[in-house]
Amino acid sequence: MSIIGTKLKPFTTQAYKEGKFLTVSDTDVLGKWAVFFFYPADFTFVCPTELEDLADNHDTFAKMGVEVYSVSTDTHFSHKAWHDSSPAIGKIRFTMLGDPAGVVTNNFGVMREGQGLADRGTFVVDPEGTIQLMEVTSEGVGRNAMELLRKIKAAQYIAAHPGEVCPAKWEEGEETLAPSLDLVGKI
């Protein structure tokens, strides 16, 4: 079941960010664009490659006004230990949400039944708390930060330009479409 267009559900959880533990709730997310980047577990295989990719693009996300929240069902203590022991994860400057109770993971519908682990799910939430994008991939398929950035740029563009849409492979600065009866059958 799609959760596109629905509002962020309430949560409060512990997190690790830049050497500190903090509490993060749904209300902290409101007012800015946010990415919730779910992954199965700390100290695994594909997960650190994805998180390092996000970390390498952190400045671009920040310039776009996007806050990144990585989420697994590990604790914030595990996130700190991983951050301190892995060169790839040590690059991370975004917030790493611990979700051992599975509240956030279940809110987004990416909890693996009977396993207590999250699927690889990516969700983009707008400043009003509405989920605008979602992608869920299988265990072995890693995600790409550049693809995510392109999609966020498109979501931000259409939010700022009602009545326009971004066609396939749209890149910032390219032409958009204004859906109308005149376009039917001509694309």
TrEMBL record:
<feature type="active site" description="Cysteine sulfenic acid (-SOH) intermediate; for peroxidase activity">
    <location>
        <position position="47"/>
    </location>
</feature>
<dbReference type="GO" id="GO:0042744">
    <property type="term" value="P:hydrogen peroxide catabolic process"/>
</dbReference>
<dbReference type="InterPro" id="IPR000866">
    <property type="entry name" value="AhpC/TSA"/>
</dbReference>
<dbReference type="Pfam" id="PF10417">
    <property type="entry name" value="1-cysPrx_C"/>
</dbReference>
<comment type="similarity">
    <text>Belongs to the peroxiredoxin family. AhpC/Prx1 subfamily.</text>
</comment>
<feature type="domain" description="Thioredoxin">
    <location>
        <begin position="2"/>
        <end position="157"/>
    </location>
</feature>
<dbReference type="InterPro" id="IPR024706">
    <property type="entry name" value="Peroxiredoxin_AhpC-typ"/>
</dbReference>
<dbReference type="GO" id="GO:0102039">
    <property type="term" value="F:NADH-dependent peroxiredoxin activity"/>
</dbReference>
<keyword id="KW-0963">Cytoplasm</keyword>
<dbReference type="InterPro" id="IPR019479">
    <property type="entry name" value="Peroxiredoxin_C"/>
</dbReference>
<keyword id="KW-0575">Peroxidase</keyword>
<protein>
    <recommendedName>
        <fullName>Alkyl hydroperoxide reductase C</fullName>
        <ecNumber>1.11.1.26</ecNumber>
    </recommendedName>
</protein>
<dbReference type="GO" id="GO:0045454">
    <property type="term" value="P:cell redox homeostasis"/>
</dbReference>
<keyword id="KW-0560">Oxidoreductase</keyword>
<dbReference type="InterPro" id="IPR017559">
    <property type="entry name" value="AhpC"/>
</dbReference>
<dbReference type="GO" id="GO:0006979">
    <property type="term" value="P:response to oxidative stress"/>
</dbReference>
<comment type="subunit">
    <text>Homodimer; disulfide-linked, upon oxidation. 5 homodimers assemble to form a ring-like decamer.</text>
</comment>
<dbReference type="Pfam" id="PF00578">
    <property type="entry name" value="AhpC-TSA"/>
</dbReference>
<keyword id="KW-0676">Redox-active center</keyword>
<dbReference type="InterPro" id="IPR050217">
    <property type="entry name" value="Peroxiredoxin"/>
</dbReference>
<comment type="function">
    <text>Thiol-specific peroxidase that catalyzes the reduction of hydrogen peroxide and organic hydroperoxides to water and alcohols, respectively. Plays a role in cell protection against oxidative stress by detoxifying peroxides.</text>
</comment>
<dbReference type="GO" id="GO:0033554">
    <property type="term" value="P:cellular response to stress"/>
</dbReference>
<dbReference type="GO" id="GO:0005829">
    <property type="term" value="C:cytosol"/>
</dbReference>
<dbReference type="GO" id="GO:0008379">
    <property type="term" value="F:thioredoxin peroxidase activity"/>
</dbReference>
<dbReference type="InterPro" id="IPR013766">
    <property type="entry name" value="Thioredoxin_domain"/>
</dbReference>
<dbReference type="InterPro" id="IPR036249">
    <property type="entry name" value="Thioredoxin-like_sf"/>
</dbReference>
<keyword id="KW-1015">Disulfide bond</keyword>
<keyword id="KW-0049">Antioxidant</keyword>
